[in-house]
Amino acid sequence: MMKFAEFWKNYGNNFDIILCLGDRFEMFGAVYAGVPFGIKFAHIHGGETTLGAIDNTYRHAISLASHLHFVSTEEYKDRVWELTKSNNIYISGSISLHNLGNIELFSVSEMIDRFSIDFSVQTVLVTVHPETIDSKSNKKYANVCANIFKEISDRYQVVITMPNADTKGSLYRSMFIELQKSSNGKIILIENFGTQGYFSAMKLSKFLIGNTSSGIIEAATFNKYVINLGDRQKGRDRSENVIDCPFELNPILGAVGIIESKEFTFTGVNIYYREDGLERIVELVQEF
Predict the structure, then answer these.
(1) I want to staple 200 with a disulfide (CB 3.0 to 4.6 A). Which of 106, 146, 262, 267 is the partner?
(2) CA distance readout (Å), 97 to 7, 93, 102, 199
(3) Angle at Cα 198 formed by Cα 50 and Cα 155, nearest 5°?
């Protein structure tokens, strides 16, 4: 906040409007440092709710500080209106889905060359972050994850992307590292795929397990089923590819069985996709 306050003080007059995305605490710091300087913000992905993460606090606060709002669904439009009473709220879908059409995804051989992971083997892609609201339960949740991944690694290669810098993230990290050591190469850890690598992994995997927004928003575009764990994404609209499960062994194994019975392929629509979303944002920013 101190660094951005200095930046807005020196350069804020150079900007007509600042586009800000999502709900991270870093974004909150940048936006709220600009409020005393009269900086105008356009918020993308406002109105969403994640009951198992502290992101709601930051996301709604960013909406309150913004002059223009681009939301991904009708429900989120209503929620931003309840918060702000603004007349400048527009549905643009999720812009990340438009990005997917411009990313040249890696082939199986390219993933081997870049990350030393062979996705010709049946693979489950895992992204689990801590639940930052119910942080005391994370040790239990990490243990459940360890048991699940051990159980399914007899028939799947399990590729785990490491947790981000949320509260209790180190607990999951240490658990996953110990799990990898005893897995005979069936459990693989990746610090950061990058955008291109991550969505390539999503495309090449059989299904996803975790509690990340990419499972809610992007996975349906790749026709992938997602086992969504716990409450971190609770409250978000979801397409029919998402199977919600508590952090409990038997329900999660049951969900794996359901996905296997459907032969891994989701054939429905992604509710977050809007064909004219990017054009709409550009047009409305110019009008504003």
Answers:
(1) 106
(2) 31, 8, 10, 11
(3) 95
For the record, the structure tokens of 90 come out as 């527009």
Reported as a single tens digit per residue, the pLDDT across 140-175 is 999 999 999 999 999 999 999 998 766 677 888 888
Q: How many CA atoms lie within 13 A of 179 on its CB side?
A: 26
Helices (H), 104-193: 108-115, 138-152, 169-181
Give the gyration radius of the chain's Cα atoms.
Answer: 20
Q: Tokens representing 31? A: 């936006």
Tokens describing residue 206: 């059989």
Q: pTM here? A: 0.80
Question: How many Cα atoms within 13 Å fall on the side-chain side of residue 67?
Answer: 14
Here the tokens at position 267 are: 């054939």
SS3 at position 174: helix
Distance CA 188, CA 159 (A): 5
Tell me, what DSSP letter sits at residue 182? Answer: T
**CA 161, 165, 166, 167 torsion-angle sign:** positive
Collapsed DSSP state (helix, strand, coil) of residue 142: helix
Place of tokens 């996803």: 208
Dist CA 28 CA 46 (whole Å): 12
Longest dimension (CA), the chain: 59
